[in-house]
Amino acid sequence: MLAFTRTFPDVTARSYGSVATIDAGGCAVSVLELRQVVKHFGAIHALSGVDLSINAGEVLGLMGDNGAGKSTLVKVMAGNFPPTSGEVLIDGKAQHFAKPVEARERGIEVVYQDLALCNNLSAAANVFLGREIKKGIGPFRWLDHGAMARRAGALFSELKSETRPLDLVKQMSGGQRQAVAIARTRLSKAKVVLMDEPTAAISVRQVAEVLDLIRRLRGSGMAVILISHRMPDVFDVCDRVAVMRRGRKVADKRLTTTSPEEITGLITGAIHVA
Predict the structure, then answer these.
(1) Which fold has domain 1-11+56-82+96-107+190-274?
(2) In what order do the strands lie in the sheet with 248-254?
(3) For residues 59 and 38, what is the distance between their CA atoms, to the nearest angstrom?
(4) Residues in Cβ contact with 130 at an 8 Å cutoff, skipping those fewer than 6 apart
(5) Which candidate, 26, 140, 157, 190, has a CA 20 to 30 Å from the CA of 218?
(6) Average pLDDT over residues 268-272
(7) Which tens digits make up the pLDDT trace of 12-56?
(8) Longest alpha-carbon distance in the chain
(9) Where are the domains of the chain?
(10) Which residues, other chains included, contact 155 with Cβ-Cβ below 8 Å and sequence gap of 6+?
(11) How much is the mean pLDDT over the chain?
C-alpha cells in the first residue's frame, strides 16, 4: 500500500470571460459550494463531511467506484435529498431545497444518464417540455410551436450541434440526444450543470460530440460537474477531478498535477490520503 500525505494545492478555475461573484473581502465566490455535507439513511452513512466547490467556467470531474456516494451527492445538489447536516451554497448564499424544482430555479440543472427525454416528441418539444411557449388572445392559449422550434434551433446552433428542432428524438443518435438534454439546460440559463455518465453506451464519434458540447458549456461561463467512470473523458475535458470513496471525498486535484494511475489508486483505495 502507498501512503499519500501531501496537501492538495488550492484550485482556481480558468477564466472564460464570465463574471464571478465577489465577496466583501474582494475574493471570488464559488458558484456552487458544499460545506461538510452529511447524509444518513437510517444507519447508513452515505455521505460523511463532504466539502466541494466549483467556479463559473470550470469542469469538475466526479469519480468513484460504485457505492462511493457520487449519486447521493448529486441528488443533494439537485434537491432530491436534503442533507442531514452541512450546507449547500450558491454564489455564497446558503440554500435549502425541498424539491428539485427549487434547485433548478436557483440555477442547478441535471442531465441524467437516461436523459429523461420523450422519444415520440420532437427535439424542440423536449427542450421546452414543462416550459412551453404559448400564445393566444385573452383566456384562449395554445402552444407556439414555431417559436419553440426557432429558439431550440438557436440553442443547437450555439452548441454547434447538427440536431434539428423538428426531428423526433427516437430517430436521433446518442450524441444528438445529449445535445437536446444540454439545450434544455441552456434554456433555463443554468449556473451549474450536473452531467451523469453522459458518454456511457455511445459510440466513439458520439463521445467526441458530447465532450465538445461540455467544452462549449464551459466556454460560455457555465460550471459543469461531470460524473463519469471513463478516465479518458475526464482527463480530456475536465480542469479538476474530485474522488469519492465510501461516502468521503478523498482527493480534489487539478488534472495537470495528477495522472490516471494515481486517480485509479485513489478510487480503489490502493493510494491513501491522510
Answers:
(1) Rossmann fold (3.40.50)
(2) 108-111, 192-196, 223-227, 59-63, 240-245, 248-254
(3) 24
(4) none
(5) 26
(6) 90
(7) 333 333 444 554 444 567 999 999 999 999 999 999 999 999 999
(8) 72
(9) 1-11+56-82+96-107+190-274, 121-187
(10) 127, 183, 186, 187
(11) 88
Q: Are the beta carbons of 8 and 237 closer than 8 angstroms?
A: no
For residues 34 and 88, is the Cβ–Cβ distance under 8 A?
Answer: yes
Q: How far apart are CA 30 and CA 223, in angstroms?
A: 10
Instruction: Provide the total of helices (H) and of strands (E) in the chain, helices listed first.
Output: 8, 16
pLDDT, tens digit, for every residue of 153-190? 999 998 888 899 999 999 998 888 989 998 998 888 79
DSSP state of 268: H
Sign of CA dihedral 177, 161, 172, 66: negative
Cell of 156: 443547437
pTM above 0.90, yes or no: no
What are the angstrom distances between the C-alpha of 174 and each of 201, 208, 234?
A: 8, 11, 19
Contact 44, 81 (CB under 8 A): no
Rounded-to-integer distance, Cα 103 and Cα 76, Å: 10
> Which has more confidence, 161 or 202?
161
CA separation for the pair 145, 136 (Å, rounded): 12
